[in-house]
Amino acid sequence: MILPPKRRNGSPMHRNVAVLLAGTLLAGCQLMGPSAPRVDPVAVVAPRTPSAAEEAIGAREDPRVVAEYGGIYSDRDVEAAVARVVARLVAASDDPSRRYKITILNSPVANAFALPGGYLYVTRGLIALTNDPSELAAVISHEIAHVLLNHAIERSKVVQQADIVERVAAEVLSDPLESQSARAGSRLTLATFSRNQEIEADKVGITIAGRAGFDPFAASRFLDKLEAYAAFRSAVGNRDDAASFLASHPAAKERRDLALVVARQFGAPGVGERSDSRYLRALDGMVFGDDPSEGFVRGREFLHPRLAISFQVPPQFRLENTREAVLAAAGQDTAMRFDGVTVDTGTEPATYLASGWINGLVPGSVRTRVLNGLPVATAEAEAGDWVFRIGVVRVGGSMYRIIYADRSDGAAIQAALDFTLASFRRMTPTEVARLRPLRIDVIAVREGETVGDLAVRMQGTERKLQLFRLLNGLEPGASLSAGQLVKVVID
Fold this sequence. Notes:
- By secondary structure, the protein is α+β, with helices and mostly antiparallel strands.
- It is 40% helix and 19% strand.
């Protein structure tokens, strides 16, 4: 979550809960999207010298990417482990003389992407999910393939063409439905182009990883893990079919099928390097989940040490912290958003609520009270098929906003808002001092220990068993052996 809040003049309240909760950054390689055709696995990329345009784009965008994803994550052991993987991949690629800059981003989101000029990025959130160097190699080789195939430059040309189509549609077509159809058509062209790039990058990337001696089947295995982790993290739930269809990458199942086709070039499952205790031990101690500067989610509670505030959501809600806001959801039709703005210290919560930043404010619904020594105001709003219950809390020069939305049940979200407001409080200095980020602890399984025994050690989540299995790539019913290295999350 980005805090402290920024001063704003006020913006209209969104009419759609999907928009209300939008905040997840969408850049680089994603996991979900429409189906894609089968392809020939044979892949060779002709070596070429990067152009001046590519170098300029990468150098220009690099600082923006780093800032957008929480800065650079520094950990010598992790950096060394990543560097070893990259060196092997570059040596096995079709252009081993090509130079790359690899950056580990301080983000809990599992993501990786590339910029022209050889700029490669992988988040610590993705690295934390890997259990062997082959899984990391599957991801990074995919990004190296994007660079070798010149995809970013090609995509920028298509983006420019799509923008022109949309402007013409908006300015020339008088029928709103025809204008909307033309804009959707341009987006579909762009999305299809990107899917083709992803297919090509999968094919080339897995080939590079296999040549480097890594397990070529790691790509399909890790795609499953990424999909499961995305579902685990998501507080919003599944997107509708239209949004999925316009997503820029192939569906996980299609990518997995493609990955298996390419991997079979190298033989049956079991070929290539997979286990490496040195790699897994390098992850010991790395930060897991939210960065302290963005606050922490601990089960159903959000705590921000720098701002010294905390609140909870009701048991049926699942919290998710993003850089834009703190989100929560209870099914498809009920959601919550928390963020903040800077105000004058004399601004009353009721005055702020009625200042015009909410569409559909119900007249006469603004109420004031004091909770935990803090001034609070609440209101109701309606927009389209949605009903909203809004609460604002002033702490010094900050106004914190809590918005609950539901398709019809105003009483239920009123109760949820009341619960959250009653829990909203200032943290004591002692509490702030004790709050630490979660970290990965790599341990050896002792004789007789089970998955359940180790899962109970997991901190920061109410779904301990599910997260333990995800982090360690364990299927339901899988057993552990003495001496096996596993990851647990501790604080």
